[in-house]
Amino acid sequence: HLVQYAVIFDRIFRFSITGNRTRNYDAVGGQLLFAWLHQRGVLHWTDTALAFDWDNVPDAVVALGDAIDDLYWHSIDRPKIAHWLAAYELVRGTLTPHPASRWARGLSDDILAGAPKGYTDAVLDDEFPLSMFFETLDKKMKPIIESTVGIRGTDD
Asked: In which domain, by residue range, is 143 found?
């Protein structure tokens, strides 16, 4: 159970609020896990209290893994851009894209018919902005995280 706690808390909290928001895909992974668990009723954030239904967390995490496995299983039958769009839809089905997202609105035929660089250039630096939960967490944790910069373990 301790490993389960460590992995979930590391993914959800540290990866989501550390580093900058420019194409921070680890952060999106943490946000995705948080939202997936919340939307399946195994993570609860109420009145500034976080609670987990730990008995059901493994099944919810496995369901996310299954959705990702299914995405990749189908990749062999798709052209690359169709696969990228399917991956975007998987994430978009759980996280809310930026209101200015060209991907969320649907890429133009010019972009879709062009080189892959056009697809990636159309992704906003912060395509999936932090939710209100993470904005609040970031404000509370940023001073603490910044205070630990440069702290290193020793070999003693």
From this structure: 2-147
- Say if 154 falls within a structural domain: no
The answer as to whether 153 is a domain residue is no
pTM value?
0.84
Read off the pLDDT of residues 123-142 as tens digits, 9 standing for 90 and up.
998 898 888 888 888 888 88
| Assigned domain for 156 exists | no
Cα 74 to Cα 83: distance, rounded to the nearest angstrom: 8
Largest CA distance in the chain: 61
Could you give the CA distance from residue 54 to residue 153 in angstroms, rounded to a whole number?
A: 32
Q: What angle do CA 119, 37, 76 make, to 5 degrees?
A: 40
**Distance separating alpha carbons of residues 73 and 130, to the nearest angstrom:** 29
Tens of pLDDT, residues 73-97: 999 999 999 999 999 999 999 999 9
Domain count, the chain: 1
